[in-house]
Specification:
The protein has about 170 residues and is mostly beta strands. The chain has no helices and six strands. It is about 0% helix and about 35% strand. Strands 1, 2, 3, 4, 5 and 6 form a six-stranded antiparallel beta sheet that branches. It is globular. The N terminus is likely disordered.
């Protein structure tokens, strides 16, 4: 996107922004996330009802995500939580490990490999439908915030938003 304030008309660079960064310019998030931490991706405040993470590549095998969180401004409220009325969907689910890898684990508020999602095939996507359209500016992803596993890490992915679930924009 050109003409974004503070960019001198240049297209913002692809980057993964660590928690605490003040850089609001993310267009295409590419790079390995820290598998045992909350990875915060900041972007220009955007109106959305849907948030999608398209996972394009993993460190090994199918990628694993233990939580997708969505925030707005300085609010500590995670709008992606099922308990806040949000709904998780996904492209597919890896078979054979249903006791610890479920789509509904994407937004259950629990961390660790035992509460995670793994797609059956690549590329895969995980999506959160927020209870209502709202202005958001941060998505937080984690692989195994329980700190036990560091494999199956998403290393290339896009974060997209939509108002209707049909037309998507990369943030």
């Amino acid at each position: 996107a050109t003409g974004v304030p503070g960019t001198n008309g240049e297209r913002p660079r692809p980057a993964a922004i660590a928690a605490g960064s003040q850089d609001p310019l993310i267009v295409n998030v590419v790079g390995a996330i820290n598998p045992n931490a909350a990875n915060s991706f900041l972007f220009v405040p955007t109106e959305a009802k849907y948030v999608r993470v398209d996972v394009l590549e993993s460190s090994i095998g199918q990628p694993c995500i233990d939580e997708v969180e969505v925030f707005s401004g300085d609010s500590p409220k995670n709008f992606a939580l099922h308990s806040n009325g949000a709904k998780a969907t996904a492209s597919s689910l890896l078979k054979g490990f249903e006791e610890k890898h479920q789509i509904e684990f994407l937004n259950d508020g629990k961390y660790g490999n035992g509460h995670s999602w793994i797609p059956a095939k690549m590329p895969g996507w995980a999506q959160i439908e927020l209870p209502e359209a709202m202005t958001i500016d941060r998505v937080v992803l984690s692989r195994d915030r329980g700190g036990k596993l560091a494999r199956r890490v998403p290393v290339s992915f896009d974060i997209l938003v939509s108002g209707d679930g049909k037309e998507w924009s990369t943030v």
